[in-house]
Amino acid sequence: MDKSWSNQGKDANGDAKDQQLEQFRVNNDGKKMTTNQGIKISNDEDSLKAGVRGPTLMEDFHFREKITHFDHERIPERVVHARGYAAHGEFELYESMQEYTKAGFLQKVGAKTPVFLRFSNVVGSLGSVDTARDVRGFAVKFYTEEGNYDLVGNNIPVFFIQDAIKFPDLIHAVKPEPHNEMPQAASAHDTFWDFVANNQETAHMIMWLMSDRAIPKNYRMIEGFGVHTFRFINEKGKSRFVKFHWKPILGVHSLVWDEAQIIAGKDADFQRRDLWESIENGDFPQYELGIQMIEQEEEFKFDFDILDATKIWPEEIVPVKIIGKMTLNRNVDNVFAETEQVAFHPGNVVPGIDFTNDPLLQGRLFSYLDTQLIRLGGPNFAEIPINRPICPIHNNQRNGFSRQTINVGKVSYHKNSLANNTPSSSSASEGGFVHYEEKVEGRVTRARSKSFDDHFSQARLFWNSMSPPEKQHIINAFSFELGKVKSQSVRQQTVNMFGHVDKEMATIIAINVGVNKPIGEQSNVTASSPALSQENTIKLPQTLKVGVLIGDGFDATEVSNVLKTLTKYGVRYSLIAERLGAIKSKEGVQLMATETYLTTDSVLFDSLYVVGVRADNQAKFNQDILIFINQAFRHYKPIGVATTGLPFFSASNAKLGPGVVVATGNADFGKKFVDAIAQQRFWDRNIY
Ligand code: HDE
Questions:
Q1: Any idea which fold 460-535 has?
Q2: Among 258, 330, 380, 604, who pairs with 88 as Cys (CB 3.0-4.6 Å)?
Q3: Composition bias, kind Polar residues: at what positions (predicted)?
């Protein structure tokens, strides 16, 4: 078969998916209002009544249609991953994977494929907060010329359980407790930790969940993982095991827990806002796609089972090969139509990508289609614009609620002679999907492989790989979460369980949550995997946000030089003053404040630049500015202090030291401040 893979329909009018969506976009600007039947509406303010003060009449078709549509606006939220946010983009291939897979979109270097990526929180309801401690969903739909390929991943590379049959139990335990529907979007409660302690396969995942990975700074700075082991199949039919990784160009960065909780109140939409604004500003989020591969013959070479989704393949043992880059470059037009109605399914694969017997993956292959049938109201959701493949669809499926396609002709069965036996099936060489012919044998049994028994070695590998501040954060997270657990028995069981990961860690947690020291032995793993620590991540100043605390009387030359330097390095800033609008320097130069001390907060910025105000205006300013400085300092953030800002900084609880850059007597202030901003956190700071 001739595979001259094109650019997946990319041309000057946007990608093929964008062009397809364009057919469904409706712009009401400047148009006359009509009913859904197209009747022009004369009055949309008053219902039709018998007399101006009389009852509303049944014949008011406009009123009935409008209210009925409104009454039916909601659809069920996703049972998990309800709160999410998405964007469009493209995937570009760096290196041909032809040797390993026949997947069309992975053949030609430079080939571009339209994608749609939905990020999500697992536990909280649709209206919950962005910054909850939780796993983040990272679901990518590739609109390839061979059909849709969905890589439905998370930002953590392992999972809580090993067999999909336990998923309802896990989710029942972590969701709000059923008798009082509390707490919302939180794992810090009895039923979750009771599940953990009584299902010890969760150990590795819980270490990740208690780490900074579960409180990401934003969606742009998280990794994505396919989690399961999949297969690549090449043209010759050879199979290799593969794991997928997405690596953010800006590195992996997190919030601190106190900050995450404050943000939950100050801006519940913190992460979606960041994604939306970054794309609007042209700061397009980018992630490189990496793959790990294991030869078919090497399936049993490792001290873990490669089909066990509670295990990683340490990057130091199985290197990650970077093969392409995804760029998110377009926000949605309508969140309901696109983000809410998109339907991902790990079973959506293209020829060249196949499944393995991972029992978690196998169960997922059933669940997604099943849940979408109820969530999207029947079997025709693949016709919803966001879900439509960009290639032609032909089959004998018919009817069902809200069918859009008008299938012409009388034949809707296979085989037939009336339509020349079409639509016809395709052989592998014609691009037909042929499942990998894996040899399977065994007795029918409800059991788990012995090779899935080791729950603690990789949990300890993760612990060993953490830097001292990361270890402290894990201890703090356990102490917070278990501290909220009312049952002393559950607290004790959990501490005992994590004593198998690290005795000292579990002992400190035991003291913090008022239970006995752990009993039992800790895992004897001494290895570590540097790739797991966020201390080793990429640190860049680009797109980080500085809050400039400023008022009348600043030094125009000094401030404008610093702002220019920030811009030069791609740092974003907002001017925060007592009131919106113009602020004047001592020379009379004006700058515009876009935020006030009421409308924003230090937690919404990565760093502060303390400029200060004229002496006669200090009293009021002092109070506001001190709150900002104290909080940023306590959250280990970089702080730049202008010459006019020093009196304010000195009056705060913050101390000179790591991450505090002072302009007075510092010729290279701007650049040094940018370097500090790139570091993001200064953990070796003595906070009060
Ligand atoms: Fe999901 N998961 N999941 N999951 N999952 C859903 O499908 C399920 C698992 C993931 O933005 C549901 O359409 C089972 C692992 C993401 O729309 C549901 C099991 C991973 C999303 C479902 C898992 C994921 C979902 C709910 C255990 C990472 C959001 C709504 C075997 C690799 C996709 C829906 C979006 C959504 C089932 C475990 C990722 C119920 C049974 C492991 C990112 O079908």
A1: Hemocyanin, N-terminal domain (1.20.1370)
A2: 330
A3: 1-10
